[in-house]
């Protein structure tokens, strides 16, 4: 740890996460773009950020390096889980020789958490230089090396956290947890719906998008472990409860296929981007402010404050 040193620390970001950091973790937060601007431009005209996290790669690394994966991690106030996730996944992917970089999609606005919109933002930021994404929950850690994070086939997305393997969700149409999607496929599906504020159902709607695009979900085969020992699910539901509240007409609207919103209607700002090091592993933090159309999705704020303010204007 000591040899990595402690570089400039952005305490505003740390305090914004509302966590106190112990001395066991070395963090380095350095600005990666013009501070004070309304939005940081997406990556373009550059090589993918890979390589320094692949120190112990097998001989077949050159077979995997033909493709580069952006690991997109929707995030808010889950720092202790991130501290476990980054070293674990990096070592796991290094054993497979998968060229990748982790992007933490940190939602900093006042609205309810919107996992799907964050993934859309991460895709917009990375798609010019990465040819597939991993939509990855921060609390789900793969344990079995038979789970290959490989470039998805022409058939469609590769669902690593298959229903028969996931520790909690086992229904046939489940595509949450960890889903690998090619950039051309994600673009063709218009990304994910932007209507899902709060927890749940955005993956089920995305499954319908996959099907409607003429694609199908593929899953790992011949896995020798089961739902009890394929993943470590590190979320503590007593310490951090899911936001399952339904308000306004949210329940009715979010049970239907969304044909209006997606990548093409996404509205957001990225006020800052930071490089961060956890246990010597470099990742990128995107601070993201999502915009909510109160008239379309008033459930982005179940308190009703935003809707009331809008009606008074």
TrEMBL record:
It is a single-pass type II membrane protein. One of its GO terms (biological process) is carbohydrate metabolic process. GO terms for cellular component: Golgi membrane. Pfam families: Glyco_transf_7C, Glyco_transf_7N. It catalyses: 3-O-(beta-D-xylosyl)-L-seryl-[protein] + UDP-alpha-D-galactose = 3-O-(beta-D-galactosyl-(1->4)-beta-D-xylosyl)-L-seryl-[protein] + UDP + H(+). Keywords: Glycoprotein, Glycosyltransferase, Golgi apparatus, Manganese, Membrane, Metal-binding, Signal-anchor, Transferase, Transmembrane, Transmembrane helix. Residues 62-150 form the Galactosyltransferase N-terminal domain. InterPro entries: Galactosyl_T (IPR003859), Galactosyl_T_C (IPR027791), Galactosyl_T_N (IPR027995), Nucleotide-diphossugar_trans (IPR029044). The chain crosses the membrane at residues 12-32. GO terms for molecular function: metal ion binding; xylosylprotein 4-beta-galactosyltransferase activity. It is found in: Golgi apparatus membrane; Membrane. Residues 157-231 form the Galactosyltransferase C-terminal domain. Catalyzes the transfer of galactose onto proteins or lipids. Belongs to the glycosyltransferase 7 family. This is Beta-1,4-N-acetylgalactosaminyltransferase. It comes from Glossina austeni.
């Amino acid at each position: 740890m000591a040899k990595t040193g402690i570089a400039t620390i952005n305490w505003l970001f740390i305090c914004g996460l509302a966590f106190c950091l112990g001395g066991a973790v070395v963090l380095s937060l350095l600005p990666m773009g013009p501070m004070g601007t309304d939005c940081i431009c997406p990556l373009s005209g550059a090589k993918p950020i890979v390589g320094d996290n692949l120190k112990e790669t097998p001989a077949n690394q050159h077979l995997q390096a033909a493709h580069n994966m952006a690991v997109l991690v929707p995030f808010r106030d889950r720092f202790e889980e991130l501290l476990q996730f980054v070293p674990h996944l990096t070592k796991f992917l290094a054993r497979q020789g998968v060229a990748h970089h982790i992007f933490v999609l940190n939602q900093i606005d006042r609205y309810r958490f919107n996992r799907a919109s964050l993934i859309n933002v991460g895709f917009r930021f990375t798609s010019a230089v990465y040819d597939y994404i991993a939509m990855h929950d921060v609390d789900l850690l793969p344990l079995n090396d038979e789970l290959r994070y490989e470039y998805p086939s022409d058939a469609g997305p590769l669902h690593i956290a298959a229903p028969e393997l996931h520790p909690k969700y086992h229904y046939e149409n489940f595509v949450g947890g960890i889903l690998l999607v090619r950039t051309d496929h994600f673009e063709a599906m218009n990304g994910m719906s932007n209507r899902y504020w709060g927890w749940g159902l955005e993956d089920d709607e995305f499954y319908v998008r996959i099907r409607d695009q003429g694609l199908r979900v593929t899953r790992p085969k011949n896995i020798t472990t089961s739902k009890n020992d394929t993943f470590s699910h590190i979320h503590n539901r007593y310490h951090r409860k899911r936001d399952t509240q339904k308000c306004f007409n949210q329940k009715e609207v979010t049970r239907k296929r969304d044909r209006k919103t997606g990548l093409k209607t996404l509205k957001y700002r990225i006020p800052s981007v930071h490089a961060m090091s956890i246990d010597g592993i470099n990742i990128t933090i995107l601070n993201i402010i999502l915009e909510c159309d109160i008239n379309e999705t008033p459930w982005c704020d179940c308190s009703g404050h935003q809707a009331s303010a809008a009606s008074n204007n």
